[in-house]
């Protein structure tokens, strides 16, 4: 008998437990979907449509709700001869500037039409914008542009100024661009330039974390499809929901916990997934979440993490935010990335503290220095470097930090200049 055999006692169809699975309906988001529908209705009515921004932490349903709503919008728009609708979807996960987003939009449009893509380098930003306007004009009608994880562009927000004004500025004639921005950062809008805030005129929809009572009805239909009948103990789904609600309120985390519990039962060759499997799965996922939490940080978050890792490599921690900010700005300069204010850096540090990546210490030195906070990593430096090295933009800096960690005297001149 071979080493690998097809499972016939735990998973009937594991697809509903995959991140890419799109459910037939969206549960526990009625209020958000109602707002979403109202925001998109003007497209069907052939009226001017506001841009839409969705905010919420990872796993709160923003992306799946957008796919669900746009699917219905496209189907319903097809019933009206006078509604000309196109959608363009770009993930900004690895895009850190308006230039890169514009190139990605051009190439996504051309890809859908089986046409050659443009190079990611070699153009001025204005030229890329001009090409994008030409592509949008050729589409005509209403073009819904989805920018998923838009917060990755940081301060490089020209694309959010140019697209909404393209029609009024005469850059396009026969098209109405509508932006749907999806962000994991509730404070992303606060960091936009005043002219962008004024131009966007967007409707905001907030997706709060799920509680346990909301997560259970999300998990139940997936569990019914994914597992053979009778394989799950009655406490398994409620426990998965409770663990995820207590931690992040993420449906994605709850689904992964359920899948991991099933895989543990499969590995033990038992015919029941129990509460104990869920608890073991939770321990395993907690380790993985530290890596995932670091990987899912925005470009600015990675830059802040980089600055803290450098201080850790020099064994100069805990560190005050003002000292950490100086290093952060130098790292941004070296990466040719925009830097944010010290207040925003503290916001990123607060997010990393909630993720369990760093420790925060409150100091009080009385009248002489007052009250302040100091920070240091709460995960192994090697784990941080592993994540940074897997991100192309931070590879060079991560290698310098690694060398510094090996010997505090190595590459001092190089480090002090960035």
TrEMBL record:
Q: Output the SUPFAM superfamilies linked to this UniProt entry.
A: P-loop containing nucleoside triphosphate hydrolases (SSF52540), Winged helix' DNA-binding domain (SSF46785)
Q: Which UniProt keywords apply?
A: ATP-binding, Cell cycle, Cell division, DNA replication, Nucleotide-binding
* Residues annotated for ATP binding in this entry: 60-64, 210, 222
Which Gene3D superfamilies does this UniProt record tie to the protein? 1.10.8.60, P-loop containing nucleotide triphosphate hydrolases, Winged helix-like DNA-binding domain superfamily/Winged helix DNA-binding domain
Q: Where is the AAA+ ATPase domain?
A: 48-206
Q: Which residues form the Cdc6 C-terminal domain?
A: 305-388
GO biological process: what's one of them? DNA replication
Question: What are the protein's GO molecular function terms?
Answer: ATP binding; ATP hydrolysis activity
Is the keyword Cell division in the record?
Answer: yes
Give the protein family: Belongs to the CDC6/cdc18 family.
- Function according to Swiss-Prot or TrEMBL: Involved in regulation of DNA replication.
Protein name, per record: ORC1-type DNA replication protein
């Amino acid at each position: 008998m071979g080493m690998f055999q097809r499972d016939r006692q735990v998973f009937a169809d594991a697809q509903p437990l995959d991140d890419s699975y799109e459910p037939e309906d969206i549960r526990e988001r009625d209020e958000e979907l109602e707002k979403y529908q109202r925001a998109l209705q003007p497209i069907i009515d052939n009226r001017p449509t506001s841009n839409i921004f969705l905010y919420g932490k990872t796993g709160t349903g923003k992306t799946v709700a957008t796919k669900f709503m746009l699917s219905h919008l496209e189907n319903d728009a097809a019933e009206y001869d006078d509604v000309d609708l196109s959608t363009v979807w770009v993930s900004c996960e690895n895009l850190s500037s308006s230039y890169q987003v514009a190139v990605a939009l051009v190439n996504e449009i051309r890809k859908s039409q089986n046409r050659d893509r443009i190079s990611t380098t070699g153009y001025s930003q204005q030229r890329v914008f001009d090409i994008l306007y030409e592509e949008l004009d050729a589409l005509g009608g209403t073009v819904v542009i989805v920018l998923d994880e838009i917060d990755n562009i940081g301060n490089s927000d020209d694309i959010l100024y140019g697209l909404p004004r393209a029609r009024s500025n005469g850059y396009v004639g026969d098209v109405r661009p509508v932006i749907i921005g999806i962000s994991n950062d509730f404070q992303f809008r606060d960091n936009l330039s005043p002219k962008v805030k004024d131009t966007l005129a967007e409707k905001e929809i907030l997706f709060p974390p799920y509680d346990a009572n909301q997560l259970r009805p999300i998990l139940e239909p997936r569990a019914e499809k994914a597992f053979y009948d009778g394989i799950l103990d009655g406490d398994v789904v409620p426990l998965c929901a409770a663990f995820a609600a207590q931690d992040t309120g993420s449906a994605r985390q709850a689904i992964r916990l359920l899948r991991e519990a099933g895989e543990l039962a499969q590995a033990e060759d038992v015919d029941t997934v129990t509460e104990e499997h869920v608890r073991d799965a939770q321990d395993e996922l907690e380790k993985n979440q530290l890596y995932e939490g670091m990987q899912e940080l925005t470009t600015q978050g990675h830059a802040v993490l980089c600055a803290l890792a450098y201080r850790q490599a020099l064994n100069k921690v805990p560190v005050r935010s003002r000292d950490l900010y100086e290093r952060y700005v130098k790292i941004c300069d070296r990466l040719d990335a925009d830097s944010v204010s010290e207040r925003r850096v503290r916001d990123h540090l607060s997010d990393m503290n909630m993720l369990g990546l760093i420790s925060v210490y409150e100091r009080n030195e009385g009248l002489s220095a007052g009250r302040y906070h100091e920070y240091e990593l709460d995960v192994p430096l090697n784990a941080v470097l592993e994540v940074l090295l897997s991100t192309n933009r931070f590879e060079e800096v991560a290698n310098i930090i690694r060398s510094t960690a090996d010997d505090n005297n190595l590459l001092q001149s190089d480090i002090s200049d960035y």
